[in-house]
Known about the structure:
Blueprint: H1 2-36, H2 40-59, H3 63-79, H4 81-114, H5 121-133, H6 136-152, H7 157-161, H8 164-177, H9 185-205, H10 208-213, H11 227-260, H12 264-300, H13 303-330, H14 332-340, H15 347-360, H16 363-379, H17 384-407, H18 413-439, H19 445-472, H20 478-499, H21 504-510
Helix pairs in contact: 1-8, 1-12, 2-5, 2-6, 2-11, 2-12, 3-4, 3-6, 3-11, 3-12, 4-5, 4-6, 5-9, 6-9, 8-9, 11-17, 12-13, 12-15, 12-16, 13-16, 13-19, 14-15, 15-18, 16-18, 17-18, 19-20
Amino acid sequence: MKTNHRIFRSAGVVSLGTISSRLLGFLREILMAWTFGTDKVASAFVVAFTIPNLFRRLFGEGALSAAFIPSYVRVRQEKGQLAAWQLTRNTASLLIMILGGISFTGMLLCTLALRVETLPDTLAAILGSLRILLPYMIWICLAALLMGVLNSHRRYVMPAFIPCVLNAAWILALIYVNQYTTFDADLKIEIICWVILVAGFLQFALQVPAIRKLGYRKPQTISPLGPEVKKVLTLMGPAALGAAVFQINVLSDRLLALWVGGYGPISLSYAERLIYLPLGIFATALGTILLPEFSNLVQLKDREQLGFMLDRSLRVLMYVMIPAAVGLAVLAVPIVEFSFQRGAFDALSTMYTSRALAFYAPGLIVFSSSKIFIPLFYAHEDTRTPVRIGMWTVFVNLGFNLLFILVLPEGWKHAGLALGTVLSSLLQVIVLGRICSKRYAHVHWTPVLRSWGRCVLACVPMILAARGSLYWLESESILLRVPLAIGVAGVVYGLATLLLRCPEIRELRRH
């Protein structure tokens, strides 16, 4: 029981950092919308930024972290802290070698391609941003490695707040470029790309003192392909393959959205930011805590405690995610209007983004569930099962995307891409949950589903209250109407769950 109390207290600390980063990210997107609206220049930037993020998922906070953290915990317990530092240094050296080579090659290819005079303008904009952004993946992946080390030592504050650096720098860059009306959109994007690169380095550098404070000792020799690193790579291989397939799928979604219309990628990006705000407040924070905690319980072979932790995480998480998903879906238009409609972001941009948001919203429930199930597989050093399932899911997603592009009318096709992602992810979570329950920790689905049902029921008066508030405040500014409506809806939801005797509200207050 003490372990669970510590987990949720730690999740609260991480949530504070994560919500700070998400709020800054939300402010960043507000300024991006103000500056660029749904212009194709911003869409080209979104596509370019997807590529270094692909490698971040492969070698940073995704596949490598999933393989590195359990290995780091095991080496520290079996061989001591010095061996764990050796593993960290060797892994970092390998990262620099691989990502440095990829960055240099990519920058060279971009430079050569940009010399082609007949290159389409949109493709030239993508390559121009990409050439600057590629080295970003080196620093952000090294930063993710240090975050994994700190989390393994239960030092959650620094890793939780370090992403704020990127968003803060990005915001300052947007404020700066908006001071100069002579800057065209291309120059503004270029400045933002350089600021992102510098921010990536800072996210790494600011964590180095915290690592030294843990007692880091520089190994006498460096062996990027030492035995323990090879074990990490063996574990990482399947997860990297799955992450690669998934991220290529994300990139294909961006390209399909760009093909649908110049507004497509950037509209999806704004909608995703609204989804990531509640997702990051609790789901991402909880998933960050669960991987090292699951890893420790696996080493102790405490299957009963794993099951208890899994049940409770699913109940508490959905107590927050279900009303958030329902609210974003039903109130998509006023929420987007409140968040972004100013400057270059006009009513047409609101329409495109709100459609994508309404189709993305159910994904909050699905995406957050995966934050619980996948770490349990990784804690058992099983990186293959999520990959096999994920690869099938990618093909399902592509099928949904092509179907919705064909059947949905103009102006809705980009939203169909969001719906395809949600439906394919739902299939993935269902399969992961069934396997997880049979293989690693039994999930008591009856009480979990009963808890979810109460949350859904409580959403009915919540939405009625929100709609009623918007109606009665119709003459007021949108900047007043939407926050008040959301506040009233939150109070009504809380009261409804108290009447329904939902235990999750007490658990959240306690921890």
